[in-house]
# Entry
Amino acid sequence: MSNLGLRTIQIDNQYLIWEELEASRKQEIINAPPKVLEDRYSMRKLLLNKPGVFSLDFKNQENRFTAYLVNDTKAQKLFIDGKDQHTVEAEKLNIDRDSAKIAVHGLTYDMGGKGLAKRLTNAGFPTTEEEGIRIQKAFEISHPELMGFKRYLHRATEYESLLFHRKVQLKDKRDKMNWIIQGNCSELIIKALQYLYDYCLDRVRVLPHFHDELVLECLKCKTHSNLPCEPILKIKKELEGLYPFYWPQTKMKVFELGIK
Ligand SMILES: [Zn+2]
# Structure
């Protein structure tokens, strides 16, 4: 892993040293739109291409937390049954799966039908305002628990996070839902990092991580195939065991880690 560092950059499967690039090339990279950056200059891909490096990510983290927190029994059942949430939502909203993903994310927070139409159009799915409003209404009807929770939030002035019991004042009317879900979700990753640094540094190196994904390099095995090794699978289990959240009336954990 000797060439693994922030100064190394991957361009079309070639590894280059940032300092050695010409100024115009650097500028081109800096100015590239995010999608191009993601595809061509991805630090994440660079890390994950190395043998012994695996990513553990919280599957559908925000959607699972929302379903758990607001007690959305239909959404909970999807996760319990192992169904693909976006496909099911797409059918209910009568849109395609990629649009449903954007719609559920936006409408769970404070986006309205008009904002959704704009967001979908910008993402390459041309949508009229009327259609955006139709999707919003269909979403609200099929998620009564979430709507009830958001109404409660409008009046709420204080909130305590579930894992670390942080108490925060809720001042702004907008974005309360966003803060609560993302604030709670951030604690999942903080708890995982705490555990990794306290108990696992003899087994793995913790590499830069991305949003809700942990990137770990196994220190235990000399050779690695693309399949996750036993030490990494064991750490995945240990991390999943950190969280005291179960779907109601089941012994199933709310949060699972995916592995790549
Ligand atoms: Zn290993």
